[in-house]
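Two proteins follow. First one:
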Amino acid sequence: MDDLELRKHGLDFAYSRKESDSSRRIHLFPDGTFIGGPENTDKFSLAKQLSEFNEKDAQAYFRWDSFWDEAASILYPYFLTEPPTIADLMQTVRGTSRETVLEKLLTWSYIDLIEDHFQDDRIKAYVMDSNVECDPESPGSMLGAALFACTRFSRDSDRGIPKMSMGNISDAIEDSAKSNGVEIRTRALVEKVIVEGGSAKGVRMANGEEIRSFIVASNADPKRTFKTMFQTEELDEDTLKRMGSWKTTAGCVKFLAAM
């Protein structure tokens, strides 16, 4: 946001998310009750509302919130580093309260954690939010939610629903890049990465043009990058094996509507 000066180049949000976004989220139930709404300005007011459904669950909500604080603190330091191994993560938390949190992230499902905290089905439904972008009954499914939980360490003003459309984000990035001398080509199909002496030296376009560079970066998914843009003999056996076994059959769709 700051490095690319995206606000200067037109990015703005219709509203900024706060650490607890329950004030702008409401979960309605068939009996006319609901959880969420504008009166919930923080976790304390939300817990008070939950107490109307189940007093024990209201108290458990603080443990729930604390769990995600610790989960996020495990992953957040690695956002701008090489991805850690499981051993790296375990070493980081060994001997601390976060050791149990990491163990649950890796071995429990999201449903397991909900069942461990709450009794009332309506409260369970409320905490089963859209941040779990995988099978909530699968072990390890909490890792996706932990990734979203890391937003609590960023500025409230830097996250939310962008004004105009989601395309406003890419428009601002494009404008920022061009202001710094970047050339952007669209509808330009990359056919192959040029490899010489074991190093990537550029790309060959579908029209035959070659573009040489000291650095070659791909924003295509890893499987597409390594399986379609390199020759088999240019990659080591381990990379080929990992790319071949990578499961990419999932999909995610988000629809935003003004009401």
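Second one, unrelated to the first:
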Amino acid sequence: MYKNLPKKGKITIVFVTFLLLTTLISSLLPNATATPVEIVSVTPESGQVGDVVRVIGQIDTTNGPYAIFFDEEKVKNGTAVETMVNDTFNVPSRQTGSYDITLHDMTTTNNATAEFTVIEIIVYCQTRNKYDQKPLANVSVDVYVNTTYITSGKTNETGWTNFRLDRGNYTFKAFWNEELVGSINGSVTGNVTDYMLQRTFYIESELAHITIAVNDEAGNPLPFINVDLTSSKPETLLFETNSTGIIATNAFTNVSYTIESRRYGYLFDTTLIENLTYTHDGKDRINITCPTYNLFVYVLDSKEHALKNVEVTVYEWSSERIAGSKFTDSDFGSVAFNCTFGRYKIKVYNTEWGHKVVLNETELDLIEDPFFFAVHSRISNLDPSVKVVDYFGQPIPNAQVKLERKFDEEYVNVANLTTESDGTASLPKIGGDYRISVQVMGEYCEVRPIYLSESNVIEFKINKYVTVGGYPLQIAQLITYTSLALLITTFALAIAYRKLSKTIKKEKTAPKD
């Protein structure tokens, strides 16, 4: 077809075809125009970390790709509609301050920038007594937008809590023990100062702050006291005093309360507070005194006799603090104390050896006045003894008995005894942990630890000894002595027999008259 065309015509056809192909290809590619990259608007121009920001602008390239950067961090990318960009992103984590938002044409690499300010919005809320404006601690504050719950916090010791919120209208509701006690509506608006927008709201509440202090009659604080507040409200408020004997709490206003105080589960005081609109009697402190009772302790020995001149010490049960220490009198074995209502440990000591020997340890609840309490020392006034016998069960007299008493973790020698003719030796009348060592003829034969708790005879059987004529001999010695005696006896009998035989022979050989 083209063979008959002149050369000039062929060149013209090729050129036209090239132009058509170029036009077709360029129509299929994004078109870069002379329109500059531009950010038309950033909404909002300031906000907090996490807020949604909308960027409206245009790029050079029709239907071209773009990216949005926040402070050099890519936060979004997409494709333009024609040359228009309308997109959103979330503000990344940054300190408060001014930052650049960059719209980047990925085809032409051209950019446009706009400024965005990262701010912080802090809303402070304080809960107060509606009547005397005193701050209220430990109150829960919930934040709502209309009826939608947003967040919550709890007030500190000065009644404050704070929230990070956006601009807008909010409802702040104060709750205590899950009951609504106050609310306020507030708008978070205003100018930003130093990248900060702060608003403060005060919530007047139907609550009063009260402090309850529990002390003994001497004014000493009492910890671990259980205090219950009951009222017409369905829930009883339960508390425990701290190490300084204090409870600091809130209570509903316009409500009468009954305060019951217990120590170790026993009630010792009931206080009524009527119509708690203000703090009690214009004060913020309710003082409760735990009473002092008379305690009489009687100490009896193992035979139910009064135990005289022993030390009785009373310890406060929880703190181990000494509440009193006295010696029993010589008539009734008794002693008297004045102690605060509560629980105590009673320890009875014997001190005659220069060490404190615990005769008994017990507990009591002092909940009556007066209170009489008997302590039985089962290890006092005992009649124990040691008996030392030989292999055949015969008593060994003059055996040495060493008696050691355990004080704390150490044994101390308290007596050196000698057995009588019946093999016995009397032990001390105070029981407890002992270590008894027995010597026969100066040789240690047995050492035995023992706990003395009754009037019995402790027998030591020394199998290596036998008693002969009241004198102890080792069995080996006895065998030796017996063998030697038998040998001597046999030898003597042999000699006597020999002499007798000679005499008989002489008599037989002598001439007859």
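SUMMARY FIELD: The first strand starts at residue 38 and ends at 43. The two ends are 203 Å apart (CA to CA).
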